[in-house]
Amino acid sequence: MRILTDHRLLHMLVWGVLLVAVGSLTSGCTARKPQAFEGELERSEPWSPELVAEASGLPVQDNGRVKPLSTFAAFLLYRVHGRRDMKFAIGEKAYKLSPTEWILDVWCHPDQAADYPLFRIENVGALDALGIENAGQSQNFVYVSYRDLLQKGQRLGELADQYMEIETARRNAVQEHIVQLWNQLNIYHQVHQQLAAMHHDFVVEGEELEQALGDKKVRLGRFVENAEPFRNLVRSVGKNTGDKRLGNAIALLTTLDQMQQSAGGVGLFPPADADDKTWMSVGGPVDQALRGKITSATRSAFLALQRVLVTADDAARLASLREYRTQVSAIAETRGETSKIEIEENYYLSAWHYRAMMFFIVGFLLAAICWLVPKSRIMWTSAFAVTAIGLVLLSYDIYLRCVITERPPIKNLYDTFLFIAASTVLVCLAVELIWRYRIALALAPLGGGLLVMLGRAFEQMDGKDTLDPLVAVLDSNYWLATHVTMINFGYGAAFVAGGLLAKAYLVLRVARVVQPKDQASRLLARFIYGVTCFSLLFTVVGTIYGGVWANDSWGRFWGWDPKENGALMICLSQIAMLHARFTGMIRDFGIAIWALVTWGIVVFSWMHTNLLGVGLHNYGFSSELRDAVWTNYCIIGGLVMIAAVDWLIRRDWSSATQRSEAEPPPLPSESAE
Amino acid sequence: MSGPLKAVVGLLSSLKLAVVLVLLLGVLTWLGTLAQVENGLYEAQKLYFESWFVIAELPLSWWGDYLGTLRIPLPGAYPVMILLFVNLIVGGMVRLKVKLRNIGVLITHVGIGLLLIAGFVKLHYSVAGYVALYEDIPANVGSDKVVRTSEFVSFHDYELALLKDEGSTIVERTIPEAALVAAREDTVKITDPDLPFQIEVHHWFDNCKAVARGSRPAPTPVVDGVFLLPKKRHEKREANIAGCYVIVTAAEGARHEGIVVGNELRPFTRYRYPFVFEVGGVRYALDLRRVIRELPFEVELNEFKKTDHPGTLTPADFRSFVTVREGEVEQPVQIYMNTPLRRDGFVLYQTNWGPQLPGGRPGPGPLYSVFEASENPSDKWPEWACWIIAAGILAHLVIKLSMFLASMSKKGML
Q1: Chain A CB contacts of B22 below 8 Å
Q2: Which helix (H) or strand (E) is B159 found in, with range?
Q3: Which terminal residue of chain B has fewer beta carbons within 10 Å of its beta carbon, N or C?
Q4: B99-138: string of b/e by CB count within 10 Å (b at 16+)?
Q5: Do A65 and B309 touch (CB under 8 A)?
Q6: A488 and A407, same structural domain?
Q7: CB pairs under 8 A between A and B
Q8: In chain B, which residues have their Cβ closer than 8 Å to the Cβ of A548?
Q9: Residues B238-250: what's their mean pLDDT?
């Protein structure tokens, strides 16, 4: 192992990093107090763990695929609430609900759930526009309950209708927020109301109808349970709808028909017919029952769900839930739709990428300590091993996503974060193995951890299930496995070269931790060059292969689409850099600056093109990306400026001209170890 | 080699020139990408990537907020790429020495050269258009709807067709759009010794609509109570409908005035509605239409299927079941995303369908399918170039890494 030039500044830097890390961890522990719950609690006791576990793995169909209820609930929460859990306070007591507990409340205790502080509104202007009282700029955001927002629904709808006429890119923040809020309200409203009919008491009029349905007031399940006598009664009167024996049957049938027509939300009952790919909501089984076409399994499932919703006793509810799950799972299994449910449930429970992130944080701290005790082999090995474990966990996370979706690693923008994070760690660890200066050792967990964090933040802000099926044009495992994987691996390597190594080079140089002629400095520049060459292989081949895909899909190899152009710009920048170095136009400092700017171009291609709102590759738009993109530009621009000023101060220009230009300086022969 | 020639060769083979050109291409690509937000893809492509010179516009923004526009004169990407190709060839001949350590670089540059040639061939020698067909089902057979064809229609380019009725046949002569667009500003006169009349074209509009005058004032000449209402050019060029006025003056002095508009009605109807006139007892017609080209085979749409992911309107698959006929030989074929039909040098891709309701649901009535049709002599060249470049870079990386590791090992640094 080699030791970097000892320097007091280096120690100060490391201590700074450690203090910032500890500070961040401590500040993470001081969470903000949850918003007050201002309704009435119907459910005073927490959901039993058995019931939550049972509900969590319930198969439901949403957005074109069958998934566990917990996944559906989690992404719905992300979408409308901006968090994966629901927190609220009653007096001094704080409550925290998991996604499954929350969705159970939404469906079993809708009145209570309607008062949860659900919709996150960050824009004061949006609050003012809706006439919602607020404390001005004193807080970053507020949560508004479904009940309160519904009261403003008409105003919200009117405003959203106006703003939707404006192009997305031209809406201001308030307009965009109103449109988003309207969409969120609609999405949640459908789910909140989806099972409302099962809580409703249908009033039965007429003696014979009462006899057929078994009571004066019935729940929806009774129409399924007593469908046959009900149907016989209706049939017995023939076309004489005025027959008194019918009671209010016609009105009830009209209500049920309307319910069937407007039924939406998540699919809860798989059809027995394997050719029918769309699962039914509540209206489907009722319709089938009234037509005499319901299967016994669907009937049992429906009645079990009815009991789950209205039973007060926890044990009975759990039994009903188990019965519902058993029946639904049995039908879904015959359709081959449940094979991934358990894997997916465990995938989210295990959160391997989150664990990987924890390992990366520890790995980074160990690497930082490793700098303080440079001769310690144990510290180096520990930091390397912990980071490598993080990489294994992250790779396992990516592997599980491939298994669940039956697709190659990258299907959407979220996947790119995980994949590029893994590529980054892999490349950095490879660099560290070749060149043990502990810089790549620290950058591996730092880069990996940051990208996983960004990925998590993106997932939270985007609020869309990242395992959902692909649109038709992306439906090609071959191209996803080749072009997409290659190009993202190239991005990862460019991140290592520009986003990590170049930044490290410039920071160490500006902070005078290393001098331009130091062997560490020269080797670092050489590695930036090497990793850029490595990246170029993937970016160039990936980009051209993308053109070949476009030729097969859209009939042209190159269409000057923003995403294509972004990829081309990365290739051109890297090609120009290699040629400039070869001709002696740039040396170590120039390589670092160029690699950093190339990283800026990668950010443009990777994320900024999605913000432009044009082109065929616009799959992963999210306005929240804007902040991340511009923050990156600012860091890159700021660092380039500081480094340029430092370069001027050092008067490098005078010495640079005296050096040989064709080849990089020879490697120093001395080694610290 | 003489002094000036040596200097020119030295400049053209210069690696520093390569760096400048590659950077320039990168900057043009970036500016051309940003220009698409305002100008649309097609216009930006013409302005930045297929032009000799461009006044590039750089929108200045901060955190997504627009601040102003900076205008920079730059050469277009077209001359830059030509120069880059020349630099690649001359540089390769002058500088590159064939040695094992350079073999990867040599292979890579051959691949890049092939890629540039492929782009050039595509730009100048390829043709593209579309084929739109209704399903060949009883509801469509016998109607106006087009269910089979052996022609494809250009996306953008117009031609003015002069049709002569010769009794049993119609004889066609066409005038390309390039000869007509001068009529934007002036009158274009078309004469031919074979023709007993002269055609004058004036008031050419790239995008317009024929409207009845009614009581409102007309901004352009009115012919038979109809005038052309100019419209703003659409960002998507294929959405523009060109139109112009025509005056036919016969030798005997007869004069016919008319309006022709380039509406393309396929696949809704196979019929055209040209401006018809008679000279010397012979019927003629003028039809402004998108350029029509022949396919070497006939295509018939048997069925179009759009499959959504269950419970959503997110498309999982678009698929056309077609029959391809060449002479007496019939072949059933499926065309769907990522799987085009390649035959006789032509490629047909699934590109659109209809009628569509908002949200992508199928509209009422029979469905139609739209295919992009293209003939590109360099269709597969980029793919070959891709493999050549990959092999070149990989070889170079392996050679360089081996040399680096050997040098490190020699110096005791491994």
Answers
A1: 572, 575-576, 579
A2: strand B148-165
A3: N
A4: eeebebbbbbbbbbbbbbebbeebeeeeebbbbbbbbbee
A5: yes
A6: no
A7: 185
A8: 382-383, 386
A9: 92
- Structural domain span for residue A247: 198-310
pTM: 0.82
Nearest by CB to residue B32, choosing from A169, A560, A671, is A560
In a domain, B259, yes or no: yes
With CB atoms and an 8 Å threshold, state whether B338 touches A476.
Answer: yes
Cα–Cα distances (Å) from A561 to A546, A582, A605, A611, B180, in that order, read 12, 31, 11, 13, 30
B390 at the A interface (CB within 8 A)? Answer: yes
Give the other-Cβ count within 10 Å of B254's Cβ: 14
A648/A575 same-domain check = yes
Residues 119-138 of B with CB under 8 A from A: 119, 122, 128
Count how many domains chain A has: 3
CATH number at residue A574: 1.20.120
8 A C-beta contact, residue A416 and residue A452: no
**Neighbour tally for A422: CB within 10 Å:** 27
**Shortest alpha-carbon distance between residue B222 and chain A (Å):** 35
**pLDDT tens digits, B374-410:** 998 998 888 898 889 889 988 988 898 888 888 878 8
Per-chain mean pLDDT for chain A: 85
Residue A123 lies in a domain: no
A618 and A517 in one domain?
yes
Question: Does B36 contact A558 at a Cβ distance shorter than 8 Å?
Answer: no
For residues A418 and A499, membership in a common domain is answered with no
User: What is the identity of the amino acid at A294?
Assistant: I
Query: At A43, which helix (H) or strand (E)?
Result: none
Respond yes or no on whether ipTM tops 0.95.
no
Same domain, B257 and B325: no
The answer to whether residue B149 sits within a structural domain is no
Of all residues in chain B, the one with the smallest CA distance to A571 is B26
Q: Does B43 touch chain A (CB under 8 A)?
A: no
3-state secondary structure of A22: helix
Report residue A341's pLDDT band, with 50, 70 and 90 as the boundaries: very high
Domain boundary among A463, A490, A511: A463
- Please name the amino acid found at residue A349: L
- Examine the domain organization and report whether A510 and A601 are in the same domain: yes
pLDDT tens by residue, A132-168: 877 665 556 788 999 999 999 999 999 999 988 887 7
User: Helix and strand tally (H, E) in chain B?
Assistant: 5, 20
From A310, A338, A364, give the residue that closes a domain. Answer: A310
- Residue numbers of the domain that contains B299: 128-136+294-375
Is 50 exceeded by the pLDDT of residue A619? no
Tell me: the pLDDT tens digits for A507-517? 888 888 878 88
> Do both A488 and A453 map to the same domain?
no
Structure tokens at A306: 């009815």
| Model pLDDT, residue A325 | 95
Distance from CA of A578 to the nearest CA of B (A): 9
Would you state the pLDDT for residue B386? 85
B285 in the same domain as B180: yes
The alpha-carbon gap from B279 to the nearest alpha carbon of chain A, in Å, equals 44
Closest CA–CA distance from residue B282 to any residue of chain A (Å) = 43
**Is A111 contained in some domain?**
no
* Count of structural domains, chain B: 3
Q: Which of B29, B37, B63 sits opposite A565 (nearest CB)?
A: B29
Digit-coded pLDDT (tens) for A392-425:
999 999 999 999 999 899 988 899 999 999 999 9
Rounded to whole angstroms, the Cα distance separating A502 from A526 reads: 11
How many helices and strands, by DSSP H and E, does chain A display? 31, 8
Distance from the Cα of A356 to chain B's closest Cα (Å) equals 30
Residue with tokens 């060059």: A529
Query: Is B148 part of any domain?
Result: no
